[in-house]
Structure formats: C-alpha cells, structure tokens
Amino acid sequence: MTGSSLLELGYVAAAHGVQGRVMIRTFDPQSVALGEVRRVSLRLGNGDQRELTLVYRRQAGTGWVVGFEQIGTRTAAEGLLGSRVSVFRDDLQPPGEGEFFQGDLIGLTAVNEAGKILGTVAEIWNTGPVPNLVIREGNLELLVPFTDEFVPGVDLVQGRIVIRPPELEE
Against a cut of 0.90, is the pTM above it? Predict the structure, then answer.
C-alpha cells in the first residue's frame, strides 16, 4: 500500500448554478467515491490544500455536481476551478481482492514477466471499457490494458506491476 492518505480522483471543471456548487470531473467516469464520502481535499492552483465538507452531491453525466458547506456563492465556486480533488483513503471502503485504487498504481515500477524494467506507471487513461496503464521510460510510452491478460500481477508492497505487453503487429 502507498503511504498517501489521499487518493486524487478528479478536478473542479466548472461552477454550477448560483449556490456555490461545482462540477467535478472524475478521472474514472465510473467512480462512485464522491457518493461515499463526506469530505474532500482540494489542491488549489496556488498549491494550497483545503479540506471541504460535502453537503450536496449528485452524479451528472461524466462527473458529479457537489456543494460544499464552506462555499455558498458562485464567485467562491469559480475560485475553485481547476483544483485537483482528492478523497481521504480512510473514508472509503477498501478495495476487494484483486481490486486496486487507481491512484495506488501510479508510480509503480512496471516489469515484464522476466523481471526486465519497462518503465513506470505514469498515468491511467479511462477511455474505453477497461482502464489503460501508460508506462513511461524516458521518451518511450507503452499503453497496456489493465486486464488479467496483460497485467498478471500487482504488488503494492514491492511497488511493482508485472506487465505482459500486447504483441505488436508488423
């Protein structure tokens, strides 16, 4: 397990209405984490962290419309635009067997089944039916579907993920 108590899940995309609500776009469109928590941490554009209490939330398309106890006007909500939104790990149900918080995969060393280092998990793209890991090594980038076929092992304690890269057609 990683040492971070926060799991970044999205960003404030827009102000919504006049009561200080905002639209949060989640990196994983299927994430329901905002429905499970009462508080979030925002990393503002200037780097400051701010903990806010949720008093309203509803799923809306590819994100969530939320209201915070501490934010009551559209002007105040507009000041949050672009802020990165994280939830507190302790506020979430732990993932089940064979499941992982996507944020825990970022930074893992990717190796092939022979143990050769392929790079580091730099990002996760949620653009299709399964998440895709972006493995980077220098200028090279490898996109790997996060399925058992292509990812036979994840070891959070060792900080490693075993990758079986897709075959390249020539």
Answer: no
What b/e string do you get for 126-140 counting C-beta neighbours within 10 Å, with b at 16 or more? beeeebbbbbeeeee
Domains of the chain: 6-91 (2.40.30.60), 102-162 (2.30.30.240)
Cα–Cα distance measured from residue 124 to residue 127, given in angstroms and rounded to the nearest whole number: 9
CB atoms within 10 A of CB 23: 21
**Following DSSP, what letter does each residue of 91-121 receive, concatenated?**
GSPPP-TT---HHHHTTPEEE-TT--EEEEE
pLDDT digits (tens, 9 = 90+) for 76-88: 999 999 999 999 9
Half-sphere exposure of 99 (CA within 13 A, CB side): 6
Residue 158: per-residue pLDDT: 92
Reduce the DSSP state of residue 161 to 3 states and report it: strand
Is the confidence at residue 11, as pLDDT, over 50? Answer: yes
**Within 13 Å, how many C-alpha atoms sit on residue 127's CB side?**
9
- Check residue 1 and give its pLDDT: 38
DSSP secondary structure letters along 23-92: EEEESSTT--GGGT-SEEEEE-TTS-EEEEEEEEEEEETTEEEEEETT--SHHHHHTTTT-EEEEEGGGS
